[in-house]
Amino acid sequence: SSRLVDALDAARVRAAQRGDRETEHAATVRLVDLLVPRGEDERARKLLLAWIEREPEDAAALHKLRELELAAENWEGVVTACSRLVELEEGEAQVKAALALAEAAEACGESAQARAGLEYVSRSQPEEGRVRALLRQIYEQSGAHRELAEILVQDGDNAAAEEQRYACYRRAATIYSEDLQDPASAVTPALKARELRPDEHETTLLVADILTAAGRIEEAVAMLEPAIRAHKRRSPELAALQRRMAHVAAAAGDQDTQLAWLKKAFDVDRKNGELAAELAHLATELGDYDLALKPLRAISLMENPGPVTRVMALLWEAKIEHARGNRAKAELWAKKALREDPEYQEAHEFLAQLEA
């Protein structure tokens, strides 16, 4: 009744004036419970906000405020209440507050608002997969690559299924190495992935790349050598491993060994455009033109090579012949490039230089 509401409000005010927190709290909660059924939600909300401002650690009051904000679909208010609750609650109650926080933030169209609260819960309960899943989603949406990689490692450590552990470690390693260009941080998850699947070719390549980029040359060699020996037949997989050995040699500053491994890899797989281009670049750089011409001619016969196209390879051959003093052959290859692509401006410019 209105009389009861007025009496409770008066009791609340008197308790506040004399500093009687317990009585004020009881009167406020009871008053809110009476106001809401009467449709006076906004008055109840203001009472709770005023109380919580003075008693920010009153979880019961925060729960009531959350319910009011939720009923009014005031999502920002729900976010505020739940953000405080995640710091006050423990165990499952804390997790539920975090889940409600994420849901409200999404309803606002601002999922990132839930990040701090979810991170707080994840630190308190690192084994809680529901919270990590929400954080993972937020990190993906916001492009927070380092945080995403870190939580993927946690997911891998906590996952029961081997397949899930492997996928988490593998993805974390890729994010560290490719998105963040941080091979040192990528090493641990990469090695964890390979420990789970030591015979998987693509994982071996990934780990080799990461170890090489991180400067851990001896470890890369120690992993690649037995993998290469295990391949009894010539195959694209063997060539890929040999190419990684060339990258290790390059990281160690040994261009002769790098060239030798690239030659081996190209002899095994002559249809790999990237490998052929890599060999051609290094051989040209070292002045071994006879060797450089072999991968370039292979590229010129491929259907859709890359990153060096057929027309680029033909002009490259022309430039090598010119460098060797073979003007007629240089002109021949440049004209072949123009037959391949009559609009190739660089070939036109090269021929003009020859004729000047």
Describe the fold and architecture.
With 356 residues, this protein is mostly helical. The protein has helices at residues 2-17, 21-35, 41-54, 59-71, 75-88, 91-108, 115-124, 129-142, 145-158, 162-179, 183-196, 201-213, 217-229, 236-251, 255-268, 273-285, 289-300, 310-323, 327-340, 345-355. It is elongated and about 110 Å long. The protein has 20 helices and no strands. The termini are far apart. It is 79% helix and 0% strand. The model has no long low-confidence stretch (mean pLDDT 93). Helix 11 (183-196) runs antiparallel to helix 12, helix 14 packs antiparallel against helix 15 (255-268) and helix 19 packs antiparallel against helix 20 (345-355).
Task: Give the N-terminus to C-terminus distance in angstroms.
Answer: 105 Å
Low-confidence segments, given as residue ranges, are none
Helix content estimate: over 70%
**Rough shape?**
elongated
Task: Please report the number of helical segments.
Answer: 20
Number of E strands: 0
Order of H and E elements: HHHHHHHHHHHHHHHHHHHH
